[in-house]
User: Fold this.
Amino acid sequence: MTGRVFAGVDAGSSATKCVVLRFEPGGETVVGHAVTPSGFDYADASARALREALAAADASEEQIAAAVATGYGRASVRFPDGVPRRSITEITCHARGAREWYPAVRHVIDIGGQDTKVIRLCDRGRMADYRMNAKCAAGTGTFLESIAVRLGLPLAEVDALAMRSTTRLTLNSYCTVFTSTEVLERIKAGDAKEDIAMGMFRAIASRVIEMLAAGGRDGPVAATGGVVTYCPAMRRALEEALEVPVHRPPLPQHAGAYGAALLAAEGAAEGDSIALHAAPEVRRDAGRSGSCACDDPPRRNAPSCADSASLRGRPC
Assistant:
């Protein structure tokens, strides 16, 4: 393939994703994408994902015009020498990716391995507010995986069981440890395994509803992340709880990398203005939230103010 390409790498806690874009007269095209386990080395994982995505795009490192790193391990992402690069929060990148797929979307629910994020966009498509569940594993992919391990089942089998559920059963515990105990109690009580499995996804959906309620809810919803990618039951539980359809992007696990690649291209076109799109730096503490006024983007290098419970007060 000839011409310039733009790369986005999302180094997540569980998986590292890469998307390679090529811009054409009719718009951008995803020409390559890849996902690989993050493992112990984000630098190695990001290099591997980039290499695989470039191979899928039939492109070379020399064709990369600009790149953006995002995600939990973004500080460790390395791009080839000479490639203009920038590091941007996953809040901004997931919002940008989801908005490109669904321009009218107002809420993005990202359920990853380490945390769950609820991002609210204003009617102009900019990040207006977010909530994050970061410290506790409840409501994340780790929550599901840990219980699946306890049951001795692959997560895919738990999902398949959940999709066959016919009776509503709700698990009341949010804590992963307590939920594991509650699952065993439900099994002992003779509840159907299909209904118990679906109850696990409903537990995550309940946590998401609380996060959405804290920031207000209006408009279309999109769901991203690995859990939505591999577990159709998660989307079903969200739609059941929200009572509205939930959009699932073509590449839900790659939403952050897709948004990063878009921002790389836009930054190259606008001349180092990617920072105008950026959300406040994400600090991974329990109950984190943040906001950014829609009328004026964040100022570069402006001072900030945050307390132990909120990131509100960031400059706009």
Observations:
- The chain has nine helices and eleven strands.
- The first helix runs from residue 42 to 57.
